[in-house]
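Lab notes, practical 5.
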Amino acid sequence: MKAQFAVVLLLALGFSACAKKQKAVMLNDAFTEQAVASSEGTAAAAAAEADERSTVERNPIYFDYNSSELSDASRNHLTKLAQAMNRDGAATVRIEGNTDARGSTEFNLALGERRASAARDYLKRLGVDSKRVSLVSYGEERPAVPGDDEAAWSRNRRDEFLLSK
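Output from the prediction step:
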């Protein structure tokens, strides 16, 4: 009789332990599912932000020959950049001014600087703190497109934007 009672007691404790273990596993699974869903949401948000940033980085603004005047398309691009930066107070941007191969090295470095400054000044008017913007001029040293014709030159007269946190 004691043996039967011991078996019943062990079975009851076993079922109780199994139930507790199953409940713990279910809670753990629920927590894991929440964590996965949360990380997927975070990953999706990060991917969307990365897409937005990479779009800004991949899309330089272009200038006319011997000019640092911003076009309407350039202002639209800079407006999107300013909106992204105003949403993310930690973001900084480096504006890289570039020119085509015509002109002296000194002239092209100065023109690249004026182009980068024009973009910075526009961002500042849109509420971006100028402390979050740095400038560099490469002049003609970093052509985007090789060649000595207008098609190549027009792609090399540009500002590029490198965002970071």
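Observations recorded by the TA: The CA atoms of residues 146 and 152 lie 6 Å apart. Residues 5-13, 15-28 have pLDDT under 50 and may be disordered.
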